């Protein structure tokens, strides 16, 4: 069997990351002709898939100048990129070769039969199952992936003596010699003798020093946290020194509501930011409802209804908890005065966003590259919040570990201007809590 590995890439890998061609070190990257044909279909799109397709095609065109792609062109890291033609007898009659995915799998199968060390790389589980059934080694594209089961939570619990808890309560810094904390990591200190005696500390820098939470951040826009997790999340959301906050949690944990409350408090009440910008991926739950009539703002209102629901609740808090016509009028006024902006993610690319409080809701439906594109829009004085539930993903080629939200949490932990909290306790209602836990 050939010593070097041949990675046969599915089209969805290249559409997920245009840098995938260069991610396999000194091995051979094989692109069946069907992949090139499928890239050609996507290249005219104005979305992230289209941009990735165009970038891959440009990369291949540059490589073409160094030799024949049909014979294999060497890359800078000692590997090779090879575009190969499918053959009629690649897989005999075992699968229907009229299906593009099957032709790509058949190419991997032929190379495997020729004695090469072949690995079929695809983000499509079904395609991986087919290839595996044919005896071909398979893998997901792992380059931009985080282990969701081991994902950084942003806080931990430590048992200490009562005197140390009392020391922190007095507003003094607490040094824990045997511990090492990440910047903006929170610690729930629990009395070893009395578990009801607790205190919460925050590490502002890497090291073993904890300081008390800032009492100024106890609430936001008349919203008070209902749990320890919500309180530490609010600490990050309200702190102007933290430029990027990621919130992960199941439905009802308060991710979006807390982010909006902090945004309203900082941009509407305190005027620390010029406006609050809110966006979310346009991915429907269940079957798409198709074309939506009306202007851009009218279309956006339908996609942003969950945001309006939360804003209405927050406006109601300033009016004795009543979500009435006054709350709706207040929201319309803020939108009209451009203090709140609702924008489709499609229109964020290319912008430079300065002095704004930006909330990206449902960020688990974004790829790592899309999240990078969004965060890189942040200008001077802008704070970005990414919220989402990696266990509720509507994008067919993403999972709890490969989505942009999980990837961002793992890659940016430990940076002093970034913070993260995983919320686990549902606070929406008892019914919502039951649904999240048992359904």
Summarize the SSE layout with pairings.
Layout (H helix, E strand, L loop, with lengths): L4 E5 L1 H6 L11 E5 H10 L5 H17 L8 E2 L5 E5 L15 H14 L3 E5 L3 H9 L3 E3 L15 E6 L1 H8 L4 E2 L9 E7 L6 E6 L5 E4 L15 H11 L5 E6 L5 H15 L5 E5 L16 H8 L1 H13 L7 H12 L3 E3 L13 E5 L7 H8 L7 E6 L15 H9 L5 E6 L6 H9 L1
Parallel strand pairs: 1-2, 1-5, 2-4, 5-6, 7-9, 12-16, 12-17, 13-14, 13-15, 15-16
Antiparallel strand pairs: 3-4, 8-11, 9-10, 10-11
Helix pairs in contact: 2-3, 2-4, 7-8, 8-10, 10-11, 12-13
CATH architecture of the largest domain: 3-Layer(aba) Sandwich
| Rg calculated over all Cα atoms | 25 Å
Q: What fraction of residues sit in β-strands?
A: 15-25%
| Oligomeric state as shown | single chain
CATH superfamily of the largest domain: P-loop containing nucleotide triphosphate hydrolases
Terminal CA distance = 49 Å
Helix content bin: 25-40%
**Cα shape:** globular
Number of domains: 2
Description:
- It is a single chain.
- The chain has 2 domains: 135 residues, Rossmann fold (3-Layer(aba) Sandwich), CATH 3.40.50.1010; 221 residues, P-loop containing nucleotide triphosphate hydrolases (Rossmann fold).
- Helix content is 34%, strand content 18%.
- It has 14 helices and 17 strands.
- The chain has a 6-stranded mixed sheet.
- Strand 15, helix 12 and strand 16 form a beta-alpha-beta unit.
- Helix 2 runs antiparallel to helix 4, helix 8 crosses helix 10 and helix 10 crosses helix 11.
- The two termini are 49 Å apart.
